[in-house]
UniProtKB/TrEMBL annotation, chains A, B:
Gene name linked to the record: dhaK
Kinase among keywords: yes
E.C. no: 2.7.1.121, 2.7.1.-
Record lineage: Bacteria, Pseudomonadati, Pseudomonadota, Alphaproteobacteria, Hyphomicrobiales
Pfam families attached to this UniProt entry: Dak1 (PF02733)
Name of the featured protein: Dihydroxyacetone kinase subunit DhaK
Length: 330, 330
């Protein structure tokens, strides 16, 4: 296991400190470093808060800033932030209009975010949107069904723009829940990852194998397959995704090819090229695109493909200005 | 060798096509796909052109757009673009004020860019800035001395802003040459890379080894060392860099930690944190920062540290708006 780190115990804290120092124009630490929040909060808007285990950077801290999240909490590697962290984020970010918490569908995250809502709900208006875009993790039949993966970025971007525009809490929740039904992701890994604390690999692949349908915590997928050409891999991912998503007239497609940590930009663009061709040949024109390393699984060599079918309003919210460490436009 | 690719022959073309399709708001292919250029050229400004071998993405194509490059040429992997490609870029990008070519200091690149200048110089005002920020490659004593690596991004950003502001060709060249004397980079690799065409690794490292001082083509560095804690690695890089750069009063420091392709954001931020602390303890306050995967060596697990000492004017040019696929602000 060769990683740029000092000790497994201090790895997350050192990395997050580096992040905050590098992006001090956007973000500051909250009290006792329990969360990262925007340097300048906007009074009277609903605060959008997210969080999750470390090891997925730049998600979520890289999405804190104008037009996206107000605060984010980072847990230990692949471990939910604590209720105390989430409550700290709520207390710092709520400027009076309440908070919407964006939570990825994992038992640990749900438990801690729900507990925070219960504990802080008497002093703050709070609600939650659960993201569950990962097709493959539904197949195992365990736990709460589909997990939240790269599609979370899309939910956070669109909700962030809507919150910036003054949308109230109940409407934001409806928007988020509607969105979540129209986003699908699937991932593939060329190697397993080593978790620093345990020094164990999540799974081990031979030189000619790949793992189809992996999650972002190195959860094994539904099938170990022989390593293949990019077009073959991409066809399998896109076929599964397009078979599972409802394509209704008037909906507009956003294609997001995400690197899982160890895959360079050139390979992601090649994969995007194949995915776009495949999906457009199925009669779904791609109107918005994102390619890059945004939702990682430590240093996993792999990628995920996400397709979102969006309304005109959601496309406009996607296009709205955003100023965070990881996403910035126009 | 597990990479997302179809064939070694088509890899670069497919990846670049994906890049152009993903960023069609910024860029288009030039005639016969010989170069990538801005969708909208600005008439009457000096055109800034760069290029180099593939395998370093997002450099340089990711830097094409408002406030940075006007066009970029992509060669085969780790191979200079041809004079014919460079001439095509000159012909498409020159709107009357001439072109400045930014070239990394490698024999192949210099030869082809010089040849293009010779061949197109009767029809266009052309000049060249050579970037040579890599400390380590000077030690080998071969070729033309220091190579150009991640510091090229800084030169292209600052010259791009100056060109956008109307700076004439001769002044841009002076600005670029001045800058180049005040930028130093050094890299480290935790593994060698496999070049797809040859299926050969550039060098092979054991599980407890690292290569100190690597170039971006997988050139071996000056020393194979036992793998160490991040702070030890970073201290070595930063010690070498700060010993080699002139720190003069009034100059302001930009610190750039760059991923070489296979290193995830969390590790880069951790390295940045250590580098910033080390350099600031040497009495050099960091005023601007960049952390991310911008100048790669295929899927190499590794990183480079770049320090630039900038004038107030250069800092203002660094801060000026930029709208490219890879760099975008304010």
């Amino acid at each position: 296991m060769k990683k740029f780190m000092n000790t497994a115990e201090t790895m997350v804290a050192e990395s997050v400190e580096g992040f905050v120092r590098a992006h001090e124009a956007f973000v500051v630490f909250g009290t006792e470093r329990k969360c990262i929040r925007r340097r300048d909060l906007t009074s009277g808007k609903v605060a959008l808060i997210s969080g999750g285990g470390a090891g997925h950077e730049p998600m979520h801290i890289g999405f804190v800033g104008q037009g996206m999240l107000d605060a984010a909490c980072v847990g230990h590697i692949f471990t939910s932030p604590t209720p105390s962290q989430i409550i700290a984020a709520i207390e710092e970010a709520d400027t009076g209009a309440g908070c919407l918490l964006v939570v990825k569908n994992y038992d640990g995250d749900l438990m801690n975010f729900e507990m925070a809502i219960e504990m802080a709900g008497d002093r703050h208006s709070l609600d939650m949107v659960v993201v569950s875009d990962d097709i493959e993790t539904s197949r195992t039949g365990e736990g709460r069904g589909r997990r939240g993966v790269a599609g979370t970025l899309i939910v956070e971007k669109i909700l962030g723009a809507a919150a910036e525009g003054g949308m109230p809490l109940a409407e934001l929740k409806r928007l988020g829940e509607g969105l979540n039904t129209r986003i699908r992701s699937m991932g593939v890994a060329l190697n397993g990852v080593t978790v620093p604390q345990t020094e164990r690999t999540t799974f081990t692949l031979g030189p000619d194998e790949m793992e189809m349908g992996v999650g972002i915590h190195g959860e094994p997928g539904h099938a170990r397959q022989p390593f293949a050409a990019a077009d073959t891999i991409i066809a399998h991912l896109c076929e599964t995704i397009t078979s599972d998503i409802a394509v209704t007239p008037g909906m507009r497609a956003l294609l997001f090819v995400n690197g899982l940590g160890g895959t360079p930009p050139a390979e992601l663009y090649l994969a995007y090229n194949g995915a776009r061709r495949f999906i457009e040949e199925r009669g779904i024109p791609i109107e918005r695109s994102l390619v890059g390393t945004y939702v990682t699984s430590l240093d996993m060599q792999g990628l995920s493909v996400t397709l979102a079918m969006l309304t005109d309003e959601e496309i406009a919210l996607w296009d709205a200005p955003v100023a965070t460490a990881a996403l910035r436009w126009p």
